[in-house]
Write a structure and sequence with these properties.
Jelly Rolls; six-stranded antiparallel beta sheet; 11 strands; globular; mainly beta; five-stranded antiparallel beta sheet
Length: 155
C-alpha cells in the first residue's frame, strides 16, 4: 500500500472509480491506507447489514442523509444526519434502513484489515445471494455475522 497523499477527493470520485453493489447498497471507496479505510454508502429503503462483529476493527459512520436504525450490542438506537456512530471492535452491531428514503453515510474502519477485499468478494452477489455463502465469504475476511433473530430482520 502506498502512503496517503494530501488532497481532496471530490464527491463524484472514488478509488479507481470503483462503485460496489453490496447486496443492493452502493459503496464508493474514498480512501485506503493500512491504518484506515473509508467509503461513502447509499442504503435504499428496506436494506440492511445484518448483525455482525469486527473482531479487529473499530468502525464509524457519519450520517449525511436519512435515518438509520441500529442494533448496538443488543440495544436498538436511532441515528440521524450529523450523528457520529461509534462501533468498537468486538461489539455486535446491525445497520438497518427501515425508512422510506435512501440513507447516505460516510463509513470508515481502522485498521483497514481485509474489508476492501471483502467488498470485492461481495460485489454483485445480488439480492438472491445465498446467505450461507455471504457468511462464509465474510468470515474468510474477518467479519463474523451473528445468527439471525426474528426482531433483527423485521423490516
Amino acid at each position: 500500500m502506498t502512503a496517503m497523499a494530501p488532497g481532496i477527493v471530490k464527491s463524484g470520485e472514488s478509488i479507481e472509480q470503483i462503485r460496489w453493489n453490496i447486496l443492493g447498497q452502493t459503496y464508493v471507496p474514498k480512501q485506503m491506507t493500512e491504518e484506515c479505510f473509508s467509503w461513502h454508502a447509499t442504503l435504499p429503503p428496506g436494506t440492511f447489514v445484518p448483525p455482525h462483529i469486527h473482531p479487529d476493527q473499530d468502525e464509524f459512520l457519519y450520517i449525511l442523509e436519512g435515518r438509520f436504525t441500529f442494533l448496538l450490542d443488543g440495544v436498538e438506537a436511532i441515528g440521524e444526519p450529523g450523528d457520529l456512530v461509534k462501533l468498537p471492535r468486538g461489539v455486535p452491531h446491525g445497520i438497518f434502513n427501515k425508512s422510506e428514503s435512501a440513507i447516505k453515510t460516510l463509513f470508515w474502519v481502522t485498521p483497514a484489515a481485509q474489508l476492501y477485499d471483502l467488498f470485492w468478494a461481495l460485489h454483485n452477489m445480488g439480492p438472491d445471494a445465498d446467505p450461507a455463502e455471504i457468511v462464509a465469504v465474510s468470515a474468510a475476511h474477518a467479519i463474523d455475522f451473528l445468527p439471525p433473530q426474528d426482531s433483527e430482520t423485521t423490516q
